[in-house]
């Protein structure tokens, strides 16, 4: 059976479009998606870059999967972010913004000069307003509490 020329063209164009559109569930899953915005902020703060740690990423995945309803691993520094269209870039941007010179503990954790290792994850979650993404990043060693 032969397809009409127009139908074959429509199917070909549709296939190309579907392949070109990124899958949101796959976004922010690579270490570089998290390391790049963190290390840009650290470069601005004139501190050494972070390196990816699979064990921290594993803990982050477990925490993110709780969608903010669980506890966090207290051995490490932690930052969390929740939004309908959350990306690693959005999270780091929020964590590193300072208002009138008053920086948050989240900012301190991102740029803490003794921190060397990073592990992050995001997880789709649901609430009464629909789907959102929950991002968790763990840092080792954690920023000082002082």
TrEMBL record:
Sequence ranges assigned to domain SCP in this UniProt record: 29-144
Pfam families according to UniProt: CAP (PF00188)
Keywords attached to this entry: Signal
InterPro entries: CAP_dom, CAP_sf, CRISP-related
Leader sequence segment: 1-27
Coiled-coil segments: none
Superkingdom classification of source: Eukaryota
PANTHER family: CYSTEINE-RICH SECRETORY PROTEIN-RELATED
Name the UniProt record assigns to this protein: Pathogenesis-related protein PRMS-like
Species assigned in the record: Phoenix dactylifera (Date palm)
Gene that encodes it: LOC103713664
């Amino acid at each position: 059976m032969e397809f009409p020329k127009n139908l074959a063209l429509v199917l070909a164009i549709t296939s190309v479009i579907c392949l070109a559109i990124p899958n949101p569930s796959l976004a922010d899953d690579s270490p570089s998606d998290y390391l790049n915005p963190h290390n840009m902020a650290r470069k601005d703060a004139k501190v050494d870059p972070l390196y990816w740690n699979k064990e921290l990423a594993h803990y982050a995945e477990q925490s993110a999967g709780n969608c903010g309803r669980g506890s966090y691993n207290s051995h490490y520094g932690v930052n969390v972010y929740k939004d309908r269209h959350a990306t690693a870039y959005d999270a780091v941007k929020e964590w590193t913004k300072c208002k009138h010179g008053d920086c948050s503990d989240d900012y301190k954790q991102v740029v803490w000069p003794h921190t060397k290792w990073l592990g992050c994850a995001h997880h789709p979650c649901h609430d009464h307003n629909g789907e959102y993404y929950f991002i968790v990043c763990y840092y080792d060693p954690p920023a000082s509490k002082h």
